[in-house]
Amino acid sequence: MEVRLKPDTESRLNKLASQSGRPTDDLVEDAMAGYLAEVVEVRNLLDTRYDDMKSGRVTPIDGEAFFKNLRQREDELLKQRPTK
Known about the structure:
76% of the residues lie in helices and 0% in strands. The protein has 84 residues and is an all-alpha fold. The radius of gyration is 23 Å and the shape is flat. 0% of the residues are buried.
């Protein structure tokens, strides 16, 4: 497989390879393996959350109402702070 990188990214990869003493191929392999593992983890989390919502174990909240409540709580906390 061939991977094409932007010049800036390739330069940074080469610099890291030089500093670490590891071949660029190994660094790219490690980076991709880590990235793909993370994508699978996020995908599984999203699937689980979707299943929880679909089954009714979790109910969605209204985003606007949540942020309104959050701003109100923040305002109340700020009012409680002693003035200097």
